[in-house]
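To fix ideas, we give here one paired sequence and structure record:
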Amino acid sequence: MSRLLVKLFIKDPENIKEPTVRKQYFSLSSIIGICCNILLFSVKLITGLLSNSIAVLSDAFNNLSDCASCMVTLLGCKIAAKPADRSHPFGHGRMEYLTSLFIAVIICVMGIGLFRDSAEKIIRPEDVKLSAVSVILLVSSIGVKLWMSFFNKFLGKKIGSIVLEAVSQDSRNDAVSTFVALVSLLLSGFINAPVDGIAGVLVSLFILKSGYEMIRDIVDEILGKPADPDDIGRIKKLAENDPRIIGVHDIIIHNYGPAKVIGSCHAEICSTESFINAHEAVDDLEHTIFEKLGIYMTIHMDPVAIDDERVDECRTLMTKILKGIDSALSYHDFRIVDCESSTKLVFDLSVPFETSLTDGEIKRLIDERLAEKCEEFETIITFDRY
């Protein structure tokens, strides 16, 4: 059914990098979400009033808040689809993340309200009335919410949207909360305990946990996460296809929204290669990365000495020194600069964040062990933490 809805209501559904197409996906999700949540709110409100269940009533108003979330999603993604302008040269794609953050905050607010009302129900319990109609309506609501979760998950994966992933998570949470409300309704007729209030507390804790996890993931996207290891692997594989490029490193990916990804890296090229050939190599790689991965890449060229006996000896020595300090250390852009009074070893050193040694301590250890081999060596190191 999900594929059928996409086929019927979205023009050119495979062109997911186009902002107008993404906007159609969000519109479809929002309109269906608004209709379903209004229906579910009405059903659960009637069920909650008939059964006098705080868990069911809270769940009903949770669906009402979902309607507001769908409207916010629709508005936010309409803004995200706007093209780049003078004030926002990279487009408005990050509005999707802000929209997701707003939805996550709404989820947490609903969780806090539900926790308060449920705790009150435990302290001052009230009789809950069970009926076959209430059970049927709640079971139907669970089915609708599970379908909505699947549908938004399908759309989210299709276009790579964290917003729709958040909406899917919210729908799944609603299905769980409705199930707990249903169980509490069934047990209330047989157990002399505030089952309804306890169920409400459990639902609220589940909702708060999900909201917190969503906020954490979205904030990571806004602050900036490390490049995806899969993307790094793909970029390196594309670089290997060009015999002029020895390797790539210092790969950085900046995400300006799912449809706007900008990156940079360094490409090592033999120092004897002509400037024109070297430029063509990195230029070709930039175009290939964009065509295959959709990443706007800027590549810096690093000349590397190949088949130079002296450089190779120094590299071997440096590899041995670094291994003795920390096997996780690695280096690149290695070159030798001869001066009147010393020989400078210039290179970039990659250091994991987990390494306890400071940059200064690492440099001191390297210099001390180099001095044991040859006092003329000096190091100029650029530290890269990853």
